Amino acid sequence: MARPGSDPSQSAAHTKWRWRKELLAERRRVPGAVRFSEAISLSTHLTSGRIVRPGQTVCAYVPIGSEPGSAQMLEDLAEFGARVLLPVVTGDGPLDWGWYQGRDSLRPGPYGLREPIGELLGSFALRIADLVLVPALAVDRNGVRLGRGAGHYDRSLADTATGTHLVAVVRDQEIFEALPAERHDIRMTAVLTPNRGLLRFV
Fold this sequence. Notes:
Keywords: ATP-binding, Ligase, Magnesium, Metal-binding, Nucleotide-binding. Its cofactor is Mg(2+). Belongs to the 5-formyltetrahydrofolate cyclo-ligase family. By secondary structure, this protein is α/β, with parallel strands linked by helices. The protein has four helices and twelve strands; from the N terminus they run ααβαβββββββαββββ. The chain has a seven-stranded mixed beta sheet, with helices on one face. The protein has a three-stranded mixed beta sheet with strand order 8-7-10. Strands 4-5 form a two-stranded antiparallel sheet. A hairpin with a 7-residue loop joins strand 2 (83-88) and strand 3. It is globular and about 40 Å long. The model is unreliable at 4-10 (pLDDT under 50).
């Protein structure tokens, strides 16, 4: 894939826009069968016992469109014994959170998201998480994550407790040497891909 943003005279925001455009176009070209296979691999990694342990709290997300993962991944985590929190968008501020209680407990939300219908726990629910799975379009080897640009995760992840693992979830081809970064960007501690599994950043 072409690597946009090589002109240092461009602002980081404009460069990110170019990255997003190309990465989203690349994802849309991935066959459904490949996405399905990758989703199974991601779920297998998460429930192998090497990333998540029964009894831990995992902040996850319901993938939309061509995002890596699947709703089945949430079911697998719950059956494995993890407690799963899902994000709820409540305006422009940090994300709220609610417990995942099965597929029937989800309702449509903003941006095409599916959100839990139960009690909302507040943005500080992130503090009880052992691990946060963060949707991303790409990540670089310094932990810089490129999201979709709404900023909800960057405003939220600052509330995590010290030592919480922040894991970007991307396809294997979406790890780069360097991505454009801004001061407010929250760095990931690891990345999870279908074929390479969990890669930690030093």
